[in-house]
Amino acid sequence: MHELLLFASVPAHQHHELLQQLAGLTAMQPRHRLERRLIFKAYRKPGLINTRVGASQDLQGNEMQRLNKMLNGGMFYTQVVGPLDESDFGLNRSSAGDPDAAMSGTEELPTNGPTYSYENQPWKLEFRDIPEAGTRSAVTARLMASSSLPKGDISTPMTAWGYSFVSEYVVEGDIFVLDDIVIFLHRVLNYPTEPQSHEPRRELPPLSDMVLLERSGSYVLQASITVQDGGNQEMMKTASQHLFGLREQLKSAVRLEQADRLSLDTRAK
Amino acid sequence: MSDSFSLPLRPRLDRPDPPDPLPLEIAQINAQWGSFRHVSEDFLRHRIADQSDDASEDHDESPTEVDTTERLDQLYRKRAEITQFAHQAHMEALFALDFVSLLISHHAPRQAETSMSAYLKQVAPMGSLTPEVVDPPPKPDAVRRDTAAVARGWRLQNFHSAANKLLTAATRLESEVAAETRYWNEVLSIQHQGWKVCRLPRDRQALGVQYGFLEATPIFRDRGLASLRRADDGSLLLDQGLVPQKARRVRVRVKTAGRWTGASRTPPPSTSDPDAIEARIRQARDTVYEEELFHEMMREARILAPHGVTTRQNLVRVPVSDEQEIWLDLVDTDGEAPPPPADDGPPAPADDDRLADALAHALRILLTHAHRQNRHRREQPPPPLTPRRRHTPEYHLLRPLLAGLQHRAHVRALEAVLRDLHRVRRAAGLAGDGTVTPFASVRPPAPHPGLPTVESLVRSLLRPLESTLGGPLAAPQASVHVTVRTAITGPPGGTVFDLAVHLPAFPDVQPPARIALRSEVEAVLSHVLLLDVVAAVAAAPATAPGRRWEPAAPHHGELVTAGGSSAAQNRKLTIHLSRDGLRVEAVAVGGLDPFGRPMPDPTATPSSRTWTAESTGPGLLEFVGEVSRE
Amino acid sequence: MSTPTKDQIKALEQSRQRLVQLTHSLASLIASLNQSDPLPSWPSLQSQATILSNNLLSISEHLSENQPLLSSLVAYPGPDFPGRTQAPTLEQLLRTKLDPRVEDWVARGRRRAVPDTNSNNNNNGGDGVTADNDNNLSEHDLAELWHWAPVEANREARQRDWGGDYTLEERQGGVANVVTGLRRVLDDGEDDLESSGSSEGEGNEGQGEDEEMEVVGVRMRPGAGAVAGGGGLEFDIATGGAHGASAVGGEDGGVGVQKVVAPVVPLEGILRFMTTGAQPGQR
């Protein structure tokens, strides 16, 4: 699969307005999205791995094959993405008198500690190649693949595949769909503290404690289309044209552009 | 207009006071009209009504009705005039230039030469015309006065025409303001009524109203937008482009045994004034919805062709049962004739009118549901682009109806069979009852988080339909139940019947698990009920002489008395059960056939008895008791 | 009889220059008329008419300024003028008789000015009563009126804001009380009045709107960044703090007035972080 993308930086003050514009444009309500993203980096030369991973009983055989193929392709950074819910985050200490809690007449005392269950966290592997170089069209195009992963502890199987954990962050934002285009208006939240050990966290801090990567609170607008067969020039062209159409429609609000290729360089050096 | 409203721009010369200052004039306008913003639609309508007489006269004499060729002609005449004037002026100016140039050519030959015409240079040597300063005699007073008069005359004339132009402009501006005010008021009133007013995508200077359905098929979705144009007087014009202005709707009719027996009604118009712009928007919306409904029904009907659904240009025929058909067509709302023609027989039972109405409503609810599903689909992340075009699946409009109707027909038929059999049996004094729970599967949906109630409601209607019928029988602990299931979304004709038979006397008797044909179910039902009669007779307490009946060939309804010393002393009982009646035949047994089965004694006279649903008097068991005593 | 002085020749030369301009303007009008079918564009026609009118005005001013001189000048052919062969040319050059059409025009003005003969004038359907009144004014009265009118008209014109969004009445009653039905804040053109560039400013804004109106419903206002206090948004968007993460980090906690802050980390930095975990600015 191929992915074609355009990006724009959206200052914080424009965010609310842009949300409304996008809602109007796509005729849908924004779909809020919280994601854990773990970055892994290949540490072995490819081709050496021939692993059976213990915890992979919930993966289909062909899924497994695809995974192996993806992970054995070269030395890459790759992402493991897991969807989150706001309730997965730890309770806000400052919000003891949370209006929501007060309103729900049942005196339901907040359970101590987060409800997050690392063991049940579903994961997907999101592989992205470095964007194609020298494409004359003004979009970012790159090879992509994604695949389901076993639930829960992902560090062990990833290590077995030859990948080491680098770091993690949370992405929060809203998704819109305009025909073939997925529009994701999002920003990066960092964890407030350094992890105890160098592996994915098993607990999540309160959402309000998360720290903005971009301190001014700006967002990234990402518009993407996936194309099944990247070799089909006709399809690739159609996809770019759809993106250009969106760029044109949004041009008074934001400037959607091709991303700097090296900023999306996933090769592990 | 100008006579009712004029600005005194022309000087009032009988009174050499300055004309009213403009603020006063604005006040005057406000006094006459109220503030521009507050000029209401009603007020304007009123005024227009007042002026309608004048207006119509104006129209008759209007010089604007010159046709285009004439106008073009006029234009070219004027153009020729302009050109001619320009030429003349140019010529005169050139003469003057030549004159002045030649005049100074003596003193300033270099400059003069640049502006002399070629002809003059040829014929007149430089400096051949010379100026001299003289002391001129004073001009006569008459001439001076005349010159002043001419100048004054033209000045007057020009002021006059300037004043006229200003007045015309003011009048035009004023009527524009009135028209704009009216237009925007109407636009606002449309928006206040909840319609979405937006800029037109193609003509971005124009406003439009969106009344269509975002989730409809693109051809219908794109028709859901009409521009709101302004008429000259400011009233709103709904411009739907090529869309026919006629209101149309899908009509549902029921035909039973070749006769019209029901038709859906046209809902009465929701507003009293059909010309009001809101009513027209509503009508446009309804029509586009109805046309889409019909279009989608046609699409679905085509895939249902194997199931007997037929389509014609403007008609879908859905067979429900052997004698009932549903006709669906798209008709003009106004030009709708009452459906049953006189020669088709007596007026239709109102029942089918209700059926037709219900079907009509159901179709519309289902299309709306399809729209909602489209929206859900649209909001999902799309699959990767492939060269294959995505096929939009046909909506489930007819199929649920068809399933529902079929289900209903099946349940009703079975109910009738069961009822008839039980009636006959009851007349014969046999206990047992058959109750029906139609559409048992349709229940108010449990609230589902994240799903609007209306959607879960429709969803529950789209689940497989299930009805049950049956009940206890005469024999102790015996019962029979039928579950009728019809899948909504699959192909039609997908009704299956599950029978649960409990006959303690015949534990081995079990019907097949799933029966697909109703006739078979009916046969099984009456057979089970026959077996129950046999079991009931067999289970009846022994009568005085001590002879008991034993089932001999229960599947044929045969019982014999047992315990007789010889076969010949025994009696044989044959029971026939049908919807029409229960018939019992008792005969003395003459011997055994080669298979050891009792044979009737050909010499004995059989005694028999028949019960119909209307029968009264002694029941079967009494008869059996009598027979057994013989 | 004397030869004209240098200054007098200069005046004549100025007449010549103005006539040159006039002939050029006329020639170009004729050319553009000939080149277009049916007519040149309305703006171009209008601007040409304006040029011509200015040319005529300048000639007329020049002529009246130099009236004493010009009326005392006579022109006569010198001895080297080939009077015998070119008599018609000379006649044409020295002609003082008016063209018949001009003669007619003059006569119409004369008629208009003389009250008795105005019964058959053609004053574009204006009602006759007023026309009569016009002409009943004495010359003196007229002169007085004409003297007064331009000043007064000018004064009137200055009293109103021709390009503004509010009427004078509304402004006196307080602009804040006006229900416009618009969610955006209208620019009260008060300042424009003094700066005299109001029409220009309007024009720019109008253009800007056309260009900016791409997204349905909401749009940016040109130069929004410069406007203080976040007023750059054309629509006053309700700021519902309910949105998921608006409380995150507390940066934009007090939503009401959002500050216009440019992102600190460039887009590339964010994307790089998302791809490899490299902290921005640590590369």
TrEMBL record, chain A:
<comment type="function">
    <text>Component of the Mediator complex, a coactivator involved in the regulated transcription of nearly all RNA polymerase II-dependent genes. Mediator functions as a bridge to convey information from gene-specific regulatory proteins to the basal RNA polymerase II transcription machinery. Mediator is recruited to promoters by direct interactions with regulatory proteins and serves as a scaffold for the assembly of a functional preinitiation complex with RNA polymerase II and the general transcription factors.</text>
</comment>
<comment type="similarity">
    <text>Belongs to the Mediator complex subunit 18 family.</text>
</comment>
<protein>
    <recommendedName>
        <fullName>Mediator of RNA polymerase II transcription subunit 18</fullName>
    </recommendedName>
</protein>
<keyword id="KW-0539">Nucleus</keyword>
<dbReference type="GO" id="GO:0003712">
    <property type="term" value="F:transcription coregulator activity"/>
</dbReference>
<dbReference type="InterPro" id="IPR019095">
    <property type="entry name" value="Mediator_Med18"/>
</dbReference>
<keyword id="KW-0805">Transcription regulation</keyword>
<dbReference type="GO" id="GO:0016592">
    <property type="term" value="C:mediator complex"/>
</dbReference>
<keyword id="KW-0010">Activator</keyword>
<comment type="subunit">
    <text>Component of the Mediator complex.</text>
</comment>
<dbReference type="GO" id="GO:0070847">
    <property type="term" value="C:core mediator complex"/>
</dbReference>
<dbReference type="Pfam" id="PF09637">
    <property type="entry name" value="Med18"/>
</dbReference>
<feature type="region of interest" description="Disordered">
    <location>
        <begin position="92"/>
        <end position="115"/>
    </location>
</feature>
<keyword id="KW-0804">Transcription</keyword>
<dbReference type="GO" id="GO:0006357">
    <property type="term" value="P:regulation of transcription by RNA polymerase II"/>
</dbReference>
Automatic annotation (TrEMBL), chain B:
<keyword id="KW-0805">Transcription regulation</keyword>
<dbReference type="GO" id="GO:0006357">
    <property type="term" value="P:regulation of transcription by RNA polymerase II"/>
</dbReference>
<dbReference type="InterPro" id="IPR019313">
    <property type="entry name" value="Mediator_Med17"/>
</dbReference>
<dbReference type="Pfam" id="PF10156">
    <property type="entry name" value="Med17"/>
</dbReference>
<dbReference type="GO" id="GO:0003712">
    <property type="term" value="F:transcription coregulator activity"/>
</dbReference>
<feature type="compositionally biased region" description="Polar residues">
    <location>
        <begin position="604"/>
        <end position="615"/>
    </location>
</feature>
<comment type="similarity">
    <text>Belongs to the Mediator complex subunit 17 family.</text>
</comment>
<feature type="region of interest" description="Disordered">
    <location>
        <begin position="544"/>
        <end position="565"/>
    </location>
</feature>
<comment type="function">
    <text>Component of the Mediator complex, a coactivator involved in the regulated transcription of nearly all RNA polymerase II-dependent genes. Mediator functions as a bridge to convey information from gene-specific regulatory proteins to the basal RNA polymerase II transcription machinery. Mediator is recruited to promoters by direct interactions with regulatory proteins and serves as a scaffold for the assembly of a functional preinitiation complex with RNA polymerase II and the general transcription factors.</text>
</comment>
<feature type="compositionally biased region" description="Basic residues">
    <location>
        <begin position="369"/>
        <end position="378"/>
    </location>
</feature>
<feature type="region of interest" description="Disordered">
    <location>
        <begin position="256"/>
        <end position="275"/>
    </location>
</feature>
<feature type="compositionally biased region" description="Pro residues">
    <location>
        <begin position="337"/>
        <end position="349"/>
    </location>
</feature>
<dbReference type="GO" id="GO:0016592">
    <property type="term" value="C:mediator complex"/>
</dbReference>
<keyword id="KW-0804">Transcription</keyword>
<feature type="compositionally biased region" description="Basic and acidic residues">
    <location>
        <begin position="547"/>
        <end position="558"/>
    </location>
</feature>
Automatic annotation (TrEMBL), chain C:
<feature type="compositionally biased region" description="Low complexity">
    <location>
        <begin position="118"/>
        <end position="136"/>
    </location>
</feature>
<feature type="region of interest" description="Disordered">
    <location>
        <begin position="188"/>
        <end position="211"/>
    </location>
</feature>
<comment type="function">
    <text>Component of the Mediator complex, a coactivator involved in the regulated transcription of nearly all RNA polymerase II-dependent genes. Mediator functions as a bridge to convey information from gene-specific regulatory proteins to the basal RNA polymerase II transcription machinery. Mediator is recruited to promoters by direct interactions with regulatory proteins and serves as a scaffold for the assembly of a functional preinitiation complex with RNA polymerase II and the general transcription factors.</text>
</comment>
<keyword id="KW-0010">Activator</keyword>
<dbReference type="GO" id="GO:0070847">
    <property type="term" value="C:core mediator complex"/>
</dbReference>
<dbReference type="GO" id="GO:0000978">
    <property type="term" value="F:RNA polymerase II cis-regulatory region sequence-specific DNA binding"/>
</dbReference>
<dbReference type="GO" id="GO:0006357">
    <property type="term" value="P:regulation of transcription by RNA polymerase II"/>
</dbReference>
<dbReference type="GO" id="GO:0016592">
    <property type="term" value="C:mediator complex"/>
</dbReference>
<dbReference type="GO" id="GO:0003712">
    <property type="term" value="F:transcription coregulator activity"/>
</dbReference>
<comment type="similarity">
    <text>Belongs to the Mediator complex subunit 8 family.</text>
</comment>
<comment type="subunit">
    <text>Component of the Mediator complex.</text>
</comment>
<dbReference type="InterPro" id="IPR019364">
    <property type="entry name" value="Mediatior_Med8_fun/met"/>
</dbReference>
<feature type="region of interest" description="Disordered">
    <location>
        <begin position="108"/>
        <end position="136"/>
    </location>
</feature>
<keyword id="KW-0804">Transcription</keyword>
<dbReference type="Pfam" id="PF10232">
    <property type="entry name" value="Med8"/>
</dbReference>
